[in-house]
Amino acid sequence: FMVTLQSRSLRVYAYALEYLDQTRLPQAEEWVRCDSPEAWQHAVKHLAIRGAPLIGLSAAFVLAQYAARHPEPEWQAVSDRLRATRPTAVNLMYCLDAMEACFTQGADALAERAKALFEEDRALCQRMAERGADLLASGDRVLTHCNTGALATAGVGTAIGALAIAKQRGIDLHVYVDETRPLLQGGRLTAWEMADLGIPYQLITDSMAASLMAAGKVDKVMVGADRICANGDFANKVGTYMLAVAAHYHQVPFYVVAPYTTVDPACATGAAIPIEQRDGAEVRGAAGAFGEVVWAPSDAPVWNPAFDVTPASLVTAWVLDTGVFDSAAIARGEHLRGWR
Known about the structure:
By secondary structure, the chain is of the alpha/beta class. The protein contains eleven helices and 15 strands. The chain has helices at about 35-45, 50-70, 75-85, 90-100, 105-135, 160-170, 185-195, 210-215, 240-250, 280-285, 325-330; strands at about 5, 10, 15-20, 30-35, 140-145, 175-180, 200-205, 220-225, 225-230, 235, 255, 265, 305-310, 315-320, 325.
C-alpha cells in the first residue's frame, strides 16, 4: 500500500495507519499497524501513540478510515469512544470536533479533513518553533520536560521544535533533559531526539532540576502543553508545575510552546481541567510500561496523575503559532483572538 502522509512517528495509508511504537524507543524503531478504533485506543492508553497533537491527528485518521468501511449511524459512537480515551489533552477534542462537523458530507470528506488537520499541524509546528527559536541565543542552557518533538506532532515539534529550528540557525545550545518520571519520556524519547538533532544534552532526574537552577546552570525552561486555559493556566506532563515553581524562585524565564489547537477557550482556569489518573504499576516500577522490574512493594498505594496544572502567574510567555504572549496579553485574551 502507498503511504499518503508521513511524519516522524505516523504513516497514513488509504485504509490503515502505522505508528512508531514509542514504548520501544530508544532500543528499537518498530512500526505497528493500526486498523481499528480498538487498536488505536490500546496504543494510546499504553503510550505507544502519545503527544497531544499526534493523539488528535491519529484519531482523525482512525475515524476517517472507520467511516470508509462502516455506515454513518456508527460514526458518532466511535468518535465518542475515541474522545474518552485521553481526557486531558484538548487537541484530541479539537480534531474530533472538526471531523464530526463533516459527518453530513460523507466518508470522503472525513478523509480530506483528516489530511487537512495533519497539514495544519505541520504548519503550526513550524510557525511556533520559529517563534520559540527567536527567544534563544547561542550559549543558552535550556531545560525541558517530557517529550515535545517530532515524535509528538506531524511536524518539527513544539518546545523541542524551537530547539531544532535554533540548531538549524546555527544557535549553539546545551539542553538539560528531565527524565520525566514515571514513564521516562524525557530519558527515552527526548534524549533520542537530541542525539538525532545533534544538539548537546545531559540527562537529569526530575529532582535535580532545582539544584541545577540554584547553581546558575539554566538560562531558560521550555515545555509543551496538553491544554491551555483562557486565563493562561496550563496542563502538561506531571512535574511541569514543580519546574515552574523552581524557575520562578530562581528567576529563570519559563516558556510554554504550543499550537493554538491546545488552547481551550471554554476552560476558564486550570481548576476545570480533567486530570487523567493512571495505573499505579507505572510508579511501583517499570512493569506498567515495559514489564521489566518492580522496585516497590507490590501492594504499595500509589497516586499517579498523568498531568499537573501550572498557574499562569508562573509563566514568562506563551509561545503559540499565532504569536508570543506575555501575562498582560493573556489577561486581555489576545491568545484567544482568531481561535476557531
